[in-house]
Amino acid sequence: MNVNGSKFVLLTALFTACASIPKSATHENFNDLLLRGGRIETRTAMPGPVHASFPTAIAVRDGKILFVGSDAAAAAHLGRYSKVVDLAGSTILPDFIDALILPNDSHEKFADCYLNEANTLDDVLNVVRSCVAISKTGWLRGSGWSHTLFESVPLTDNPLDYVETTGPIALVSSDGHSYWVNHVALSLAGIKAQTPDPRDGVIGRKVGSLEPSGLLHDRAMGLIDSLIPKRSLENTHVDQAIARFMTSAAHATFWKNQTGVLVPGMRADFVLLNHDPYETPPNRLGSLQVVAAYKDGLRIYTGPLPGRRR
């Protein structure tokens, strides 16, 4: 396994551990908080390059992020009663939203087309069209669409069939419990009007008929699962692994307007790692530790103090 694959596997283990931080941990109550001298992870795109420069400070007021930027600029947000925390080189990432999000399966198979920022049905279809235009594989694999897309849209036909392509398309929902596929994928899987729902699964049907709508829920996903080429974890970039627990998880839990990214106005929910995962050798990723966790600007967990890598 190469560097990127190693990073994904070990980061998954690390982030799962973060999700189990005890809720009973001691709270500190400071309305104003300034953390400086670290690395603030603000990237939301996946994948993406590691930037040469990055914010080093974050200011919090009344449970919301007030400022993200340099230590020098952050000084202007330092109030008389602010609590100041020296990050000592720690890296701050958004809190990991929900341990029930399925990062392993989603990234193993769906890493070609990301739909997390598409908020409407038209947005999704436009993104998929762009992905089809540059796709180099037989299957177009995507992830991140929300079930809210279909709340007010009666499925008399399959909108995904509006995308012109001769290849199969399979998109996994943001919660990992549904596929949305086109007619080509349905045909390859032999799913027809006569196909019964599998146990503990549902084949979506077009309104007023038994014809499949393209939506496959829970165990019905298994009807095409074996047909979709698996994507090797070795090709997964560390950005993708981190974003799966940040923007993707916030999108899946309908909190994307509150958390998942470190920008002003969002909830001050974040964790501190003792070293930067982007710059940690793959064989040392397993030794990364959570230094602290904050929820709404209040520290709810304190771990080992950061120290320099030996």
Topology diagram in text:
Blueprint: H1 3-19, E1 32-36, E2 39-40, E3 57-61, E4 64-69, H2 71-74, E5 83-86, E6 91-94, H3 103-109, E7 113-114, H4 121-134, E8 140-145, E9 169-173, E10 178-181, H5 183-189, E11 201-205, E12 212-218, H6 222-225, H7 238-245, H8 247-252, E13 270-273, E14 290-295, E15 298-302
Parallel strand pairs: 1-5, 2-6, 7-8, 8-9
Antiparallel strand pairs: 1-3, 3-4, 6-13, 9-10, 10-12, 11-12, 13-14, 14-15
Helix pairs in contact: 1-7
Summarize the structure in short:
The protein is an alpha/beta fold and 310 residues long. The chain is built from eight helices and 15 strands. The protein is 22% helix and 23% strand.
Q: What features would you highlight for this structure?
A:
310 residues, alpha/beta, 5-stranded mixed beta sheet, 22% helix
